[in-house]
C-alpha cells in the first residue's frame, strides 16, 4: 500500500529536524572529505581493474566485489556483489591465475550460489589443492559432499578430519558440532598451523584462534588468550575482527563489559564499511544495550545500512521510528501519522513487514501499531504474499483475533502456486493452521486438513509426522492409538525431528509394557551421557511415576543438572512425591542456591516451591519475600506470580486489593497475558477482591482458550468448572470432554478434576470406580490434591477396596507435599481412632503442621486443645493465639470462641463447642 508523499515528507521532516537540533551525528569536514576521497579512489581502482587483462588485477577486483564496495560518496557501508566477484575470479583463472586464494574464493561463492550450481567447474582444482595440503579446499569439498550431494555425515567425517588436520577451523567446528571426538594429534596440528598463520599477520587465523580459546574447542577455555588473538586480528582486519571485538565489550563474555568502548569499536568498523557494526549501532537505541548511542545516531546508521540494501536495516529503521513515534505525547492523530511515516518505507516489502510483525508487539501499544501495520499486511496477504499472510495470522492469533476467510483462501492459493519450502511443507502449514482452528470449516474442513497432513507426511515432512503422532497419542481428531502414534514418532525421529524422540520416550515411559519403559530409560540415559539436563529431569519424573527411582539413577540425573532452573525443577519433582526421603533430597538441592545470584524467573520458581515446602510462618514469609524481590525487578511473570500467591493465601487477605491492582497493571502493559487474565477470571468467579461476576470470568477464560487452545490447562479447568457449575452456561458433557482432552495431553490437574466430577456427580453420573482410576493417575503424577483424595477414598473404601494402611500412606504423601487438608485429616484419623488405637502424638503433630500452614479448622482445633489441656499442656494464651489465626483465616466459630475465651469460657464449655464443631 502506498501511503503517499505526505508520509514520506513526515519521515523526511523527522530526520531533518534531528539534524537541525544537532541530534544526528555530524561528521566533521575532515571525515566527509576522507570518505569522499576513499570512495573516489575505490571507484577509480575498480574502473582501472575492470579494464585490466592481468590475472593479478582480476583477482584484486574479485576480492573487492567479494568484500563489498563503499556504497556512495557519503555512505561508508560496503555492499558486496557476489555475481561480479564470481565473474572476476573466473576471468582471473582464464588469464592463468590458479592460485589457492582465487580457487578457494571462487569455490566459496559457488558453494553458496543456487544450491551449489556451478561448483563442479572448480571441483577438480579444489581437489588438486587438497592433495597439496590446503585445508580450506579440503573443507569445501567436504561441505559440497554433505550439502549438495547429500553424503551421510558418517561418510563425510574423514574429509572433515583431513581438513581440520590441514588447519581448517571451520572443519573443527563442524566435527565438534557433530559430536566427533577430536584427538590430541589433530588438536596440536590445528593449533600449530593456525598459530603460525596468525603470527604471520593473517587475520582469519587469529579470529579462528580467538574462537577456539573463547569456546574451549580444542584446548582449555582461556578468555585472556582469546582476547589477545582477537586484538591482534583487529590490527589487520578493520571490519570483521573489530566488529567481533565490539561484541565482546558489549556482551562482556570474555572481557569486562564496556558499552562505551563497544560503541567506539562499532563506529570504527562502521566507518570502515562494516554492515554489522552499523546495525549494532542502530539497534542500540531500540534494545537499550547501554551503549552511548542516541536515537538520532542510531537512525543515521540504520539509514546508511538501508540505503546499502542491508535487508534487516529497513525493518530496524521502522522499529526505531516506531519507538520514537510511540513516545510522542502530542495529539493521537499526530502520533498516528508518525507511525504511518515509520512504516511507509517498508509498506510494499512483505518480508520487511512480516519481520516487523513477527517481533510480537504484544503490549499496550499493539492495537495502536496494528491500526497501521495490519492493513499493510492484509493487502500483501491478499496479493498472494505467503510470508505476509503467515505473519498476519501470527499477529492476529497473538492478539486473540480470527483469520479472515479471504486471507485464508489467499494463503492457500499462494501456497498452491508457489510452495513454501516444498509442496509437502506447504500442505503441512495449511493443515496445521486448520487443525489449530485458524481456518474456518468454510475454507478448509478438519477432514481435508487431516488428508493434507497425511500427504505432507508422505512427502517426508518430518513435522507432519510429528503432528500425526501427537494426534494419535492424544486421540484428538484421530482415534487414539499408541501403536500408530509410536510409528509416526519413529518416522519423524528418522527425519531428525528431535521433539518426536522426546514424545516417543514420554509415551513409552508411561506404558504398562516393561520393554517400552526400558526403551524410554535407554533414551533418557543416552541424553544424560550427552550432558542434556532434560534427560535427567525426564528419567526422574518417569521413575517417580513408576515407583522405581533408585539412588544410582538419581545421582546420574543430578550429574547433568547445572543451572538454577534445572536444580529447582528437579527439587520440585522430588518434593511433589511427598515421600520424606525425596522431600529431604529436594531441600538439600535447594540449599546450594543463592538468592542474590538468581534471575527473576528462577527466583519466582524458587519462591513458589519454598512456599509449598514451608512448615513455619517464618518459612512462608521467606518464600513471599522471594516473590516480592522478583516482582521488584519489573518482571511481569514475577508480578503475576506474587499476585497469585496473595490471592491464594488465607493469611494475606489484606494484600488482595494489591494483587488485583498488580494483575490489572500487568494487563495494561500486556493486554494478552494469559496467566493474569486467568487469575482475574478466578477472582471474578469467586468474588475475591472484586465483585463476583461469573459472566466476566467466563468471557476472560473463553478469550484465553480461543487464543491458546489446549496449551493452557488452567484455562481448560476454569472453563470446565463454568460448564459444570454455572446456571447460565451449564453443559456437563462438554466439561467432561474438555477435561478428557486435556488429561490426554498429560495434565494431572485435569485427571484429578475428572476424578472429582465422577466422585461427586458434577456432570456425569457418580462413578466411584472411574473416580478412583482418575485420582490414581493424577496422584501418581504428583498431584497432591489427588493424593489426598485417593487417601480419603482408600480409608473409606469408596471406589476401591478399603485399606487403612494404603489410605494413610497416600494422605501422608499429600501432607508431605504441602497439602494442608491432608495434614488436618491425618490428625483427625489418629485422634478419632478407638482409644486403644489412637496416637495422640501423631495427631497433635499433624494438627500443628496444618495449623501452622493456616488451615482454619486445624488452627481452631489446636486452640481447643490448648484451652482444654487435651494432648498438650493447658495454655489459654496459646489457645487465644490459635483461635485468632483461625479467625483471620475466615473461621467464624473461631472468632466467637476467641471472644468467649476473653470473656472467661470454661474448659467444659469449650469441649461442648468442640463436639458441636466436629
TrEMBL record:
It comes from the Bacteria. Transmembrane segments: none annotated. Residues 1-29 form the signal peptide. InterPro entries: Sel1-like, Sel1_AlgK, TPR-like_helical_dom_sf. Keywords: Signal. Coiled coil: none annotated. Pfam families: Sel1. This is Sel1 repeat family protein. It comes from Rhizobium wuzhouense. The lineage of its organism: Bacteria, Pseudomonadati, Pseudomonadota, Alphaproteobacteria, Hyphomicrobiales.
